[in-house]
Specification:
This protein is an alpha/beta fold. It folds into 2 domains: 227 residues, Metallo-beta-lactamase, Chain A; 78 residues, no CATH class. The chain has 10 helices and 14 strands. The protein has a 7-stranded mixed beta sheet. A hairpin with a 4-residue loop joins β3 and β4. α8 packs across α10. It is globular, with a radius of gyration of 21 Å.
């Protein structure tokens, strides 16, 4: 299969942002550079999950618009995140390729939607005879969970922030925390070194412009720095938490998109007049000067970018938020 369009029931197919070759998912065939899983949106709404093999021992799980990574070792399975509502599907996916139980779980960051199924996975492992499942997180994630009185299972061991490595059977896992993180303050990359697979949710999703509000980034101004740090690591496949399998071509695409977005915002700030309100007294709030301007400018930016990017997945839903966030950052940082 060599087509380069998404197939989705009832709508025009989106075009690959990186000229990907689309293939059907396979739990046995290793995904090659430049390949993506076909029909991704439709698969998410019509099937419970699928598995794609990424390397000799690492696999991509997709279910309910969530993705994660698992690694099959000699004695057990390492699961990187256990997304919300996906415990049964994850366990079924793992069972497709191995009879080994999950013996370790990594928390990529302290957002519940990516780790909420941990207790269910641990329960299944204990039923399979595992006396203790390792829960591994960075020191910053562990401290954040304690500070916020998180009710999810606490890490049983930590890796030092901002850089550390640990072993799981025969694989080296390298952790790199973002010194200045966009998505949240405890975000970082987990790289399966020998497999050349990197796990980092909520920053970049393969084959599309950034998600709405840059993946709900808490600090947009650092987004490009994080994309660069991710791209500088030695990997072939990236698992981003919600979209298609990522590759280095996706890094290049997003960097170009950010360049074009910055230019469009700069042009829009010169073109769209600030404070276009006939009578601010009726609102009794000076936000009436900012909010309509921001909305008008955002629409202007989206119109500027549509000829080049409008054919890509999520454009109409995501790009208006990008324009607003970049505009606010441009106002703040000069």
């Amino acid at each position: 299969m060599g087509h380069t369009h998404h197939e989705a029931a009832g709508i025009a197919p989106a075009v690959s942002s990186v000229g990907a070759k689309y293939v059907e998912p396979s739990a046995t065939r290793i995904l090659q550079r430049g390949e993506k899983v076909d029909d991704l949106f439709n698969r998410n709404i019509t099937t419970p999950y699928f598995v794609q093999r990424l390397s000799e021992r690492a696999y991509f799980f997709n279910g309910g618009f969530y993705t994660t990574t698992f690694y099959i070792g000699e004695t057990g399975v390492l699961l990187l995140d256990a997304p919300e509502g996906q415990a049964k599907n994850i366990l079924a996916a793992i069972a497709e390729v191995t009879s080994l139980p999950v013996t370790a779980i990594v928390y990529s960051h302290n957002h519940a939607d990516h780790i909420l199924s941990t207790a269910e996975v641990i329960e299944a492992s204990r039923a399979a005879g595992v006396t203790e499942v390792r829960i591994i997180a960075s020191t910053k994630t562990a401290e954040k969970m304690e500070f916020l009185k998180c009710t999810l299972p606490a890490p049983t061991e930590t890796v030092a922030w901002p850089k550390a490595t640990f072993k799981f059977d025969n694989v080296t896992v390298r952790f790199d925390g973002f010194e200045r993180a966009a998505h949240c303050d405890d975000a970082g990359t987990f790289l399966l070194v020998e497999e050349k697979v990197v796990h980092l949710p909520d920053l970049l999703n393969g084959d599309q412009p950034p998600f709405w509000r840059f993946g709900t980034a808490e600090n947009t101004v650092y987004y490009r720095l994080n994309i660069t740090q991710l791209g500088d690591l030695d990997w072939i496949h990236h698992v981003g938490g919600h979209g298609n399998v990522g590759g280095k071509e996706d890094i290049a695409f997003v960097k170009q998109y950010l360049d074009d977005l910055d230019l469009a915002v700069a042009e829009g700030m010169k073109t769209v007049k600030f404070g276009m309100v006939e009578d601010i007294k009726q609102y009794n709030n000076h936000a009436a000067l900012m909010v309509p301007w921001l909305g008008t400018l955002s629409k202007h930016v989206v119109d500027q970018l549509r000829p080049k990017y409008g054919k890509y997945y999520g454009f109409e839903f995501s790009v208006p938020s990008h324009a607003e966030m970049v505009t606010l950052s441009a106002i703040s940082y000069r």
